[in-house]
Amino acid sequence: MIARGVHRFMAELSRQTGIPLTQRPADGANPTLLIHSVHGSERVQKLDADESYELVVNESGAKLTAPGALGILHGLQTFLQLVETSTDGFVVSAVTIKDQPRFAWRGLLVDVGRHFIPLDVLKRNLDGMAAVKMNVLHWHLYDNEGFRVESKRFPKLQEAGSDGLYYTQDEIRELVAYAHDRGIRVVPEFEMPGHSRSLFAGYPALASGPGPYKIEPGAADAVMDPTREQTYKFIDRFIAEMARLFPDDYFHIGGDELDGHQWDANPKIQEFIHAHGMKNNQDLQAFFNQRLQTILGKHHKIMMGWDEVLHPDLPKTVVVQSWRGQQSLATAAQQGYRGLLSFGYYLDLMWPAARHYAVDPMSGAAASLNPEQQSRILGGEACMWSEWVTGENIDSRIWPRNAAIAERLWSPPAVLDPDSMYRRLGALSWRLQWLGLTHRSFTSLYRMAGTDDIAPLRTLAELVEPVKDYTRMNSLKTVWDFRGPLNRLVDTACPESDLARRFRDSVQAYIASGYQDQAAEKEIRTLLTAWRDNDARLRPLLEQSFLLHELAPLSEELSTLGVAGLFALDYLDRSQSSPESWRVQQGTLIDQAKIPKADLLLMVVAPVQQLIEASAGRAQKP
Amino acid sequence: MIARGVHRFMAELSRQTGIPLTQRPADGANPTLLIHSVHGSERVQKLDADESYELVVNESGAKLTAPGALGILHGLQTFLQLVETSTDGFVVSAVTIKDQPRFAWRGLLVDVGRHFIPLDVLKRNLDGMAAVKMNVLHWHLYDNEGFRVESKRFPKLQEAGSDGLYYTQDEIRELVAYAHDRGIRVVPEFEMPGHSRSLFAGYPALASGPGPYKIEPGAADAVMDPTREQTYKFIDRFIAEMARLFPDDYFHIGGDELDGHQWDANPKIQEFIHAHGMKNNQDLQAFFNQRLQTILGKHHKIMMGWDEVLHPDLPKTVVVQSWRGQQSLATAAQQGYRGLLSFGYYLDLMWPAARHYAVDPMSGAAASLNPEQQSRILGGEACMWSEWVTGENIDSRIWPRNAAIAERLWSPPAVLDPDSMYRRLGALSWRLQWLGLTHRSFTSLYRMAGTDDIAPLRTLAELVEPVKDYTRMNSLKTVWDFRGPLNRLVDTACPESDLARRFRDSVQAYIASGYQDQAAEKEIRTLLTAWRDNDARLRPLLEQSFLLHELAPLSEELSTLGVAGLFALDYLDRSQSSPESWRVQQGTLIDQAKIPKADLLLMVVAPVQQLIEASAGRAQKP
Question: Cβ separation of A430 and B450 shorter than 8 Å?
Fold first, then answer.
C-alpha cells in the first residue's frame, strides 16, 4: 500500500512539475525524501486507525514519518501541496508539520441510484478525495429509480431494477481496492425499508403493497413488508452476499423518509402492529431495524442509518447519520449513539463553499455536549445526490467545494477564515485537474453552441449559478422524472462563480477605499464593459441553438447591468451624485435581474446594485 | 464488432447531445437508424478490405448500408458528424452519401521509443483516428533510446533496454483488440539493423561493435552484426514471438538511416563483404534484409521498411515507406514495389495543417506513373516522432492537424481548399474533446505560472507556435538528450495558432475591403489593445516563475506589436499616410520580433507588419 502510494506520488509529482521522475528509489544513503512508517497497512481499514504523520523539510532533505500507512499517504499529499513554482525552480519551503485529523470519519456520499455514475468517474473522484484527505466513500447504491449492484443470488435486482447500468461484482471489487489503496473506506448503502422501489421491480413479493412495481418515475413510493419472514430471509441472503463484496465494518441501511401509506393501507400489516403491541409505523420500523441489526451482526457488520432509525429499542452500536442537523446528532450522542453530520454538507443544494465551510459538526446543540458525548460525533459526510447529476457534470458539483468540507472535517475548528479558505481552494482547484477531474471543463458549451467560437457564451456562463436548494424541482411539471437530457446551461454552470466573487470583492474594495482604489476600478470597468458588449456578440449564438434560447433574458440583463454599472462608475469617478430618478429606474432593472431565469441566477446583480446605490453619494467619502 | 461499434456510437451520440440514450435496439419495425452490413468482420483486418458505405437520411429515418463492418463503422462516424445543434433541436440534414476511401492505407505512426506513451493515451488517440477514419496505427516500438515491448523469450530487451516503461504482452493484446474494434490495424515496427542501441543493452553480442551499450544518450549509434548466424537465430526467435502478438499481415523492420561506421570499423564484417562479392555496406544491408525477409515469410509476415531498404535484390512484395518524398515512392512503384508516403506528413515538424493538407501521395513524380504503377501507392502515414513529446502533450501535437492528413488520404484529390478544410477542422476539434483528447487543454500553464490566474499567460500562449522543422534540436547543447523536463511553453504551445490565423484573416479582409470592413477593424483593434496591455499584466507572473523567465522578450514584443498595430490602424482610420521614419523604426522592431525566442515564434508579426506597410498609403484604395 505504501509502495503503491509512493508510486502514485512520484507520478503526480512528475505531472505537477513536468519533470520525468524514475520510479526507482534513490540512493539509500542520501535520500531526498525519506519515508518511514512504523506499521504497515491493514487489509481492511479501520475507523480508529491512526492517520497522523510528521513531515519535516529542511535544507538537507525531507523526512516523512507516521505510525501507519494512512499517515504516510496523507503526508505525501501534503508534500505535493507544498511544491511551488518559484523564480529559481520548483521549491518546497522548510517546514515542520505535525498533522492529524480532527474527525475520524470524513466522507463523501455519491448517489448512483438516480443517475448511474461510471466507474472511471468514481475513480478520479477517489483520487480527488485522497488529495484532500477524505477517507470514506459512502456509496448510495440504489434508490427508487435504479438498483446498481450485480447480485448473483438475486439477479433480477439489477435486471429488472435498472436500465442496464449497474456495477458488476468485479467492478465493485476493483473500486474497493482502488479506494483502499488511497486510504479510503467504502461504505455501501442499501436503503431499507423505503426508497427501494427498484428492489420490487424484480421481487414484488417483498413489498407491502400489491404492485406491480417498475423503476419508471411517477409510480407510488414503495416500502418493504416487515411482517413477513420471507422478507428477512431475503435480506439475510442478500446481505450475506453484499457483506463479502464490501469488506468495511460498517453497512448503511438507509432507513430515511419512510412513507407510511403502504403500511397504513395493508390490513395484515396493521394487524401485525396491533398484535405486537406497537403504537405506530415508527415502532414497526424499529422492529424491522432490530431484525436487520441482528442479521448485520451475524455478518459482522455495524449498522448505520439516517436520523429516522433512531429509536430506544435499537442497540447503541448503531451509527446515526444526520441529514436533519446538529440537534438530531446531539440527541443521538446523549442517548449513547455515535453519529456523523451531513446536514449542511449537501452539495446538490448548490451553496457556495463558504457556507458549507461554516458548518461544524460540533456547533449548535452539539457544542454543549460533554466530552464523552462529543467523542461520539465521528465526523461528517458531504452528500452528492444525483437527481441532476451525471458522469459528465458530477465533478463540477463535487469540486472544488468538497475540499472546503474536507478541510472542515480535518482541520482545527479555529481555522475559519473564508478568504483564506478560498485562496487555498483556488490553488487546489487547478491541481485537481492533474488527477483528471473535469470540474473546470467547458466542453458542454460547444455542444450547446454547436460551434467552436463560444467566447461570448462562456462570458455569460462564468457569471451564472444554478438556482439554490430544491428550487429546481419546481421546474418538473408533473412527476419527478430525472431521466431527461441534462444539457442546459444550468447543468454545466458551476455552483459557485469565481469571477462573480472576484467582482464582488473588487466592488467592495473600491467602495471601501473611498473610490480611490484605481486597480479595483480598472478591473470593474473592464468587466462591466465586456458585459455591456456581450449581448450583441452572444445573440446570434442564442438564436441558432434551441438549447440557448432560454438564455436570452439573462444575456440582455447582463448587458443592462454592464451599462448601469458603467454609469454608476462614471458618477463616482466625477464625484457627482446620480439623479434619483435614474436610480429608481435602475432599481426596477435590478429587481427584475434578481429573478431566476432558465433555473439560473445572475451572480453580479448585488455588486452592481451596490455601485448604483453608492453613486447616490451617501456612501461617498471625501 | 458491429455491435460494439453501435454501442460506442450510442455512447458518443449521447455525449454529443447530452441526451441519455438506451443501448437497447429500437422497435425493429420502425427504426430511426437502420444498419445493414452484407458481411461481418474479419478476425484480422485486411489491407484490401472494402471500407465503403452508403448513408441515406430522409424524413422517415436514416439507413446505413455497407458491404462489411468497416463501412458501417465509417458510416456511423459520418452520422455523428452530421448531427447539428439547430434552433429547433438536434438535427441531421437529409442527405445521401456514397463514400469510400481514396487510399487503403491511412496511418498514424506513433514513436514510443524516445518517450514512452501510456496505454490510455494511445487508446484515446485510436478513438480520434477512428473519428477521422484512419485505419493503421504504426507502432514504432523501440529506438536507440528505449525498447518498449515485453519479450518473454528475451526479457533483457525490456529490462536493460528501457527505463522500466514498456508495454506488457497483455497490454499489447489489449491495444490491438481495441484498435481492431475501431477498424484500425496495428503494424509494429522493430528497427533493424540500425536505430537499435536499446537492443544491445541486454544483448550486446548482436552488435557490430564491442560495446558496452546503454540506453543513455550520447553513446555512439550501434548496428546489428549481419555476418553472424547468431544474429539471425535471435531475429527468428524474436519475430516468432512478436508475430503472434501482432496479428497484422505487415511487419515493419525500419531499416532507415544506417550508420556505416560500426561496419566499417569491424574487420570481420569488411572481410565478409569482400568474401561475398559485395560492393559496400548497402549491399550488406540488402543481404541482411533478404535474410530478414525469409524469416518474416516463414512467420507469414509481409516486410515493410523505409526508403533505404529498396534494393534490386529484394522481392517485390516488400512495402516501402517513404520519408524522402514522392520521387522515391515513384521509383519504387516503377520497380514494382508498393509504397506509402510519410514525407510531408511529419507532425513533429510543427507545420500548419494546410501545409500537410497540400501534400498528395500522387503528386510530383508519382503523378506521371501509369495506372498500374499508381495502384502500388497504397496511401500514407502521419508521423509522430516523440523526441519532444510525452503523454501530456502528444494529443496537441497530433490533433487536430492529423485530421487534415486523414482527409487528404480519404477524400478525392480535388478537395483542396484550405479555408474549407479549416472550417471542418474547427468543428472537429471540439468534438474530439468528447473522446477525451486533451489537445486543447491548458492545464500545464497553471504549472508554469504556479497560480490559478493564468489569463495573461494564456493570451501570450495562444499567439505563439513552437519553432519549425528541426530548429529546436539546436537548443540541445552537446548530445541529443531528450530525457529532460518538457515543461516549457514550447512544450505546450499548439503547433498552429488558431487565433493568429484568425487575426491574419481579419487583417487581410480589412485591407482587401479598402479599410471599409468595420467588423474586421473592430476585431483587430480589440485584439491589438489586449496585446498592448498584456505585458503589464503578465510581467509579475513571468518574474515569479523560473519556467516563464524566458518569455519576457516575447511578452514585450507582443505589447510593442500591439502599440505599433494600433498606430497603423489609426493612420488608416484617418486616411493619413504614416511617416516614413516611423515605419522604418517599426521595421526594426518587426525584424527583431521575427527572431525565435525560447524556441517559440510570435505568430502575429507578419499581419502587424502588413498593417504598418498599408499605413504608408501605398495599398490604400479610395
Answer: no
The dihedral of CA A17, A18, A19, A25: what is its sign? positive
Q: Among B254, B166, B237, B167, which Cα is nearest to B203's?
A: B237
**Residues of chain A contacting B24 with CB distance shorter than 8 Å:** 164
- pLDDT for A430-463, tens place per residue? 999 999 999 998 889 999 999 988 999 999 999 9
For B99, the enclosing helix (H) or strand (E) is strand B95-99
Note the pLDDT tens digit of each residue in B67-112.
999 999 999 999 999 999 999 999 999 999 999 999 999 999 999 9
Select the residue from B114, B442, B447 to test the A interface by mutation, using most A Cβ atoms within 10 A: B447
Q: Could you tell me the pTM of the whole model?
A: 0.94
At A65, is the secondary structure helix, strand, or coil? strand
Q: Could you read off the pLDDT of B259-309 as tens digits, one per residue?
A: 888 999 999 999 999 999 999 999 999 999 999 999 999 999 999 999 999
State the catalytic residues of B: 257
| A18: nearest CB among B17, B164, B447 | B447
The residue written with cell numbers 502588413 in the block is B610
Are A55 and A95 within 8 A, CB to CB?
yes
Helix runs in B309-436, H state only: 326-334, 353-357, 371-374, 394-398, 401-410, 418-433
Q: Which of A16, A87, A543 sits opposite B545 (nearest CB)?
A: A87
Catalytic residues of A: 257
| A311, A316, A317, A321: CA torsion to nearest 10 | 50
CB within 8 Å: A86 and B544: yes
User: Considering only CB atoms, which chain A residues are within 8 Å of B484?
Assistant: 20
Q: Measured between alpha carbons, how far is A143 from A112 in angstroms, rounded to an integer?
A: 8
Among B20, B163, B543, whose Cβ lies nearest the Cβ of A87?
A: B543
Region B118-137 average pLDDT: 98
Inter-chain residue contact B24 with A89, CB threshold 8 Å:
no
- What letter does residue A128 receive in the DSSP assignment? H
Contact A85 B426 (CB under 8 A): no
Q: Do B85 and A448 touch (CB under 8 A)?
A: yes
pLDDT (tens digit, 9 = 90+) per residue, B151-189? 999 999 999 999 999 999 999 999 999 999 999 999 999
Q: How many CB pairs under 8 A join A and B?
A: 106
Per-residue model confidence (pLDDT) at position B442: 86
Of A89, A390, A452, the CB nearest to B429: A452
Burial of B325 (0-12, 13-18, 19+ CB in 10 A): middle
Assess whether pLDDT exceeds 70 at residue A27: no
